[in-house]
Amino acid sequence: MMTSAVGGCRCAFLLTVIYQQTMKKTFLLSLYLLFTLAFAKAKGSSQETDSILILKNVNIVEVSSGKILKDKSITIKNGNIAKIGRFPNKLKNARILDLNGQYVIPGLIDTHIHVTAPHKNSIEKTYSHLEYYLKHGITSARDAGGDGGALLQAQTEIRKGNRMGTDVFFSSFMAGDWYYNRGQNIRKDPYSSWEQRLMPGDDLDKAMAEAKACGATGVKLYHSFDKDFLADVTVAAKRHQLKVWGHTMLYPAKPVEVVNAGMEVLSHVSMLETMRTDSLFYRRTTPMAYKDSIIAGIDIIPFCKAMKKHHAILDATLCVSEAKDPWVFALLKRIHEQGVKISTGTDQIVDLNRSYPRLIDELDYFVNKCGFTPAEALYSATQISAEVIGQEKNRGSIKVGKRADIVILEENPLLDITSLKNIYMVVQRGIIIKK
Fold first, then answer.
1. Which residues pair with 46 in a beta bridge?
2. Distance (Å, rounded) from C-alpha 212 to C-alpha 217?
3. Per the count of CB atoms within 10 A, which of 148, 168, 217, 291 is most buried?
4. Contact (CB, 8 A) for 231 and 261
5. R_g of the chain, CA atoms, integer Å
């Protein structure tokens, strides 16, 4: 899903002269927000120095092994996990919560959300969506294409502690000229540092510097890249310490070419249908059983080998295809059996009236339609998804030294993955969010 963002404040690189005064002003605003965020981190640390929270008598779900560590206590200090083990009898000035054997998992991560709208974004609506995610156990998320100005503002205010919400990481959206103009120069709106057009011969370092300056964690490569130009773009992005995210099919670059060009995270398992050769596949009147047989005949081995060789991650987004393309379940099952890393992205707009987020449906599909064990599904939603946003060293598992993003459940999710619907409490950076 593509969410363009051309209005509002725009971040821009100071040396960029083509944007002139308007973009210079938006750069200064973004620079201010970034410095505010840096100051807020330091300020937040000083405020939490003497803050200790102990989660007593919990059963810790080890997502990597599928084992339960029974009757443990988790000591949290300065927003991080300081100790796991027996209850510390001599610790002073600590807040103690006796959880009586409830189950603890790492905070969940949705690797494909969209919480801003083109041209008419309401920052309050963005906040409401991010708060919804957090209260339902999604402590971090990746916005895969949105208004970078609004996302930076939300990210900053949430990290300062001024607003409640999931910790959002966002992208600078990039596509080729054909995607925007169809060869006819039809786009009238200006581009921005979080929505860029890239063409062979462009100054890629300048483009990546602008993306970095607006606060993006990575680039989202969407459409109109051939394999050679794509390789140049991925190298430039990594040179600027940007994550490289994009679609599984980049038109004309095909899935295996996309992986070999250096893409780190590929979205949409449904796009692997482009590897099929049967012309009847796209016809609406073609029976689903016939489509299933075509998908079953796709040779996924070259794709899976390339994914594993490059340590790439598939952002499956089953929720996008659940109704119109049910064959994706069987396809993802085969890919999972080959040992490819798979993250949990939904590519859905928040329904605030829904009693639980679509991420729970995604995990339910993993387990009940794609052959994952509940532990494997949880590992995808935590440790692998943390890798997507470059946070695998400090999020994604219950380990000493990692950030205290924790979900507390009344039931064992290893027995029923849908127990994630029934959350007792959420802890983000050691702060209790929901009880």
1. none
2. 7
3. 148
4. yes
5. 22
Note the pLDDT tens digit of each residue in 154-211. Answer: 999 999 999 999 999 999 999 999 999 987 778 877 799 999 999 999 999 999 999 9
Could you tell me whether strands 195-197 and 218-221 are parallel, antiparallel, or unpaired per DSSP bridges? unpaired
The span from the CA of 111 to the CA of 108, in Å, is: 10
Instruction: Record the pTM.
Output: 0.86
Among the listed ranges 8-22, 210-224, 345-359, which one has the minimum average pLDDT value? 8-22
What is the DSSP secondary structure assignment for residue 383, as one 8-state letter? Answer: I
Cβ contact 221:228 at 8 Å: no
For the chain, counts of helices (H) and of strands (E) = 14, 16
Q: Where are the alpha helices (DSSP H) in 136-191?
A: 148-160, 177-181
Q: 236, 51 in Cβ contact below 8 A?
A: no
In sequence order, the 6+-apart residues with CB closer than 8 A to the CB of 59 are: 68, 69, 70, 71, 72, 101, 102, 103, 104, 412
Question: DSSP class of residue 266?
Answer: E
State whether residue 111 is helix, strand or coil: strand
Hey, what are 407's tokens? 């979900």
Q: Is the dihedral of CA 111, 161, 84, 105 positive or negative?
A: negative
How many Å apart are CA 208 and CA 216, to the nearest integer?
A: 10
**Cα–Cα distance, 274 to 408 (Å, whole number):** 41
Reading phi first (left if > 0) and then psi (alpha if -120 to 50, else beta), residue 180 is in alpha
Tokens of 259: 């992986």
